[in-house]
Design goal:
CATH class of the largest domain: Alpha Beta
Structural class: alpha/beta
Oligomer: single chain
Shape: globular
Strand order of the largest sheet: 7-6-8-9
Distance between the termini: 43 Å
Radius of gyration: 21 Å
């Protein structure tokens, strides 16, 4: 595994730990010396090594884009149509001539390998399976782009939200949850959304490895979750669920414990703390402060 240069680690560790432990604080006095090359592991198979602060950065995915914008790197961002896949995506990235590509974990590794070969750019893959992963990725991207203090601000805000949620929930019981991603398909408890539900004292009834396609309605009725969550793209409403012969029998549907999550709820970016707070308020309305 690659390692960050020791001199920078000492400075960065102080900044990040201070931010995550105490929330937002006054910035340290004195210059921060950048020591390149910098190596970080990220979520990919290979470490990312940059030898100087990148000047042209291509984000692939909403999370990387929001992180780069949150770090104040807007002038260095070279946008591409990241809804493309395969060779069209590779061609768009090659045309952008980046020296760093920051990609979400859902990006096809083959596309990234081809883009790296075509451009000579370094590739950083954002780990995004939990709030801890997002904090890690913000810190690492901050190091790669010479924005460690800005990264500290972002991670400090996330950690402050997490502490507030943990304090508000206290010993609130864990509630069972079904997450409908559209057509009864669901998400893994190991995904970012699943991890946020768990941190908000919820437990996804679908588990860590749900099968592809619609979740079996008969099984869902047996599990009978306390809360029914639907992603923004699902198009679901409580009225629709109450009209269906099967779902109207679910406890969550009968009691109206249903919520439509905002579109950015599962984005692995600086807003992950806000997403956690929203989910916690949905799952435990009586504990909301």
């Amino acid at each position: 595994m690659g390692r960050v240069r020791p001199a920078l680690v000492a400075v960065a560790a102080v900044l990040v730990l201070a931010g995550t432990a105490c929330g937002e604080r006054k910035e340290p006095v004195g210059a921060l010396v950048e020591d390149y090359p910098i190596t970080v592991q990220g979520g990919g198979d290979s470490a990312t090594v940059v030898r100087s602060a990148p000047k042209r950065i291509v984000p692939v995915g909403a999370g990387p884009r929001q992180i780069l914008e949150g770090l104040g790197l807007g002038k260095r961002i070279v946008p591409v149509d990241d809804t493309l896949v395969g060779l069209p995506l590779v061609g768009a990235i090659r045309h952008a001539r980046p020296d760093l590509i920051v990609a979400s974990s859902g990006t096809d590794p083959l596309d990234l390998a081809r883009a790296r070969t075509a451009t000579g750019a370094q590739v950083y893959v954002e780990p995004s399976g939990s709030a801890d992963d997002v904090v890690q990725s913000i810190g690492e991207i901050g190091l790669l782009t010479a924005r460690p203090i800005e990264a500290r601000r972002l991670t400090g805000r996330i950690e402050a939200k997490r502490r507030a949620v943990a304090s508000r929930l206290g010993d609130a019981k864990v509630v069972t949850v079904f997450i409908d991603d559209g057509g009864f398909s669901t998400v893994s408890s190991r995904s970012l959304l699943g991890a946020l539900v768990a941190e908000a004292h919820g437990r996804s009834v679908a588990g860590a490895s749900p099968e592809q396609g619609p979740f079996p309605l008969a099984r869902l009725l047996r599990l009978d979750p306390d809360v029914y969550l639907a992603t923004a793209g699902s198009g679901l409403t409580l009225r629709q669920l109450r009209r269906r012969a099967g779902t109207r029998r679910l406890r969550a549907v009968r009691s109206g414990h249903f919520a439509l999550l905002p579109a950015d709820a599962s984005v692995a970016g600086p807003g992950v703390g806000t997403s956690l707070d929203r989910i916690a308020r949905i799952l435990h309305p009586d504990a909301s402060g």
